[in-house]
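User: I'm new to structure prediction. If I give you an amino acid sequence, what do you actually give back? Let's try with this one:
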Amino acid sequence: MATKPGILTKWPWEPLGNFKYVILAPWVVHSTYCFVTKGIKEVDLFYVLIFPFLLTRVLHNQLWISYSRYRTAKGNNRIVDKGIEFEQVDRESNWDDQIILTGLLLYLSNKIIPGVSHMPIWRLDGAIIMILLQIGPVEFLYYWFHRALHHHFLYSRYHSHHHSSIATEPITSVIHPFAEEVAYFFLFAIPQLAMVITGTVSIVAEFGYITYIDLMNNMGHCNFELVPNWLFTIFPPLKYLMYTPTYHSLHHTQFRTNYSLFMPIYDYMYGTVDKSSDALYESALKRPEESPDIVYLTHLTTPNSIYHLRLGLASLASQPFVPSSPKLYLMAMWPVTCWSVVFTWIYGRTFISERNSFNNHKLQSWVVPRYTIQYLLERQKTVVSDLIEEAILEADKKGVKVLSLGLLNKNELNRNGELYIERHPKLKIRLVDGSSLAAAVVINGIPKETSQVLLKGKVSKVSYAIALALCQRGIQVATINEDKYKKLSDEFANNLLLPDNYDQEIWLVGEGFTEGEQLKAKKGTIFIPFSQFPPKKVRKDCYYHTTPAMLAPKSLENLHSCEYWLPRRVMSAWRVAGIVHGLEGWNVHECGETMFSMDQVWEATLKHGFRPLSISV
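Assistant: Good question. You get back a string of structure tokens that encode the predicted 3D arrangement of the chain. For your 617 residues, that looks like this:
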């Protein structure tokens, strides 16, 4: 929102929320009906193609978003290091509004303006007129209109909304108040109306012009330099005819320079070129890929989880992932989902999903391109293990200090990572499975007045550590797997017991905790998971805590996507464990059966600003 919102700031269909697309429904239905009833020879092809063209624009923009986020995470050629936060993601979530507006104007023009209907597929003379008018009037008028928008009156009421984003993403280019966006539409209508008036308009020129604007807008705001230097070497005048991402990035960081639309010539003519434009361009081109200090290695969960990655759909990635409640439009995207499953199955390399910075340490999240089901299939376990091993070796080669194993990347097959240490005893990188912090989070999350808990689920390294710590604190641990904890029963016979009922108010639950077991709990029971994955919620009269996790400090930058099902700015204990391990400089592994002192890890975690989550009752 602008600092002092002016008139017509809000988009008219904002109250409709996600139902705003129904605005286009009548036109889409009618154009489809015309195509079916009249056939390809008689139908107005431009009218029929408007909706498919709008879909290609959505895809075009999404590809830019995903690729830009991938490149800025890697770091090579990145321009601005400043992070993006959830506030910016929310502010830019309506980037599709301008696509809806385009659709409305195209449909209305087709019905109202003579010459817009039944246009030919291609006319060269119309394309030439369009190019000349873009180079001349459009670029010239935009330059002066843009300078006017930076006058304090218009800037505070409109343009400041766009400039709220210092570190830009491709879709930042179309984030404007409604009135400002309408003004741009009138400006870009000049070449289109000229073609209509002269009778030279064509489908290719019309759609091609809009695609060109999308392409240049996305490129200019992508925050990494991709225009090769050899282009300007071969044709030096090109620097006046085409801007670069670094060129426009300076406008977002300096505000009073580089006003031009896509052609810097008007900045050169009127003396508003930023003096550091060339130097920033050269330095961005030379910037190498970033080497992180700490890596969190995770993997995909369900087929739809790929949309919830930071590289996926920004609006989904910024919200907790609820596998049991998929969005309706994701169901309609099943062909894309199936293709992504096949692609990840074939693609055999771990990829970077996210970068963060904290206390002068560079953090990255890497994703193994395999789904949870593949980790559980016997025939895939060796393949998955090899992918994890390759990721560890790659991280070691890059000089990473600590790698924490997330989700099922630590398992029985690799003995919580110990297998890789045995295979590669000269590893400099330290592997962390995060068990000690996960157990500490659970123990410190139990209400202080608790005297007895019920321990359910499969026995694991974490559950055993929890049972031991609770018994040592004098809290009774009821478990049906008493034989699994018989090592504890000798020393803590009074605190480890078999339950004769399910009246315990606190249930500590792990993997294998079934829906049937949940039904045995009394009303008001608090389920606290110590598992990697949250249990399915089947009781509305009970309370479910998150899987072991902690709230990240505000100084942890560039955190603008949720870690699967966790709330905003909340990190899993296994991820936090790796960060704390690196910050403390602990030069030892935590994997296999090795456990750190939970009190030591807990105190170190709190010291660095991470905070526990309160249980919502």
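You can read the tokens as a compact description of the fold. Here is one thing that stands out. The radius of gyration is 29 Å.
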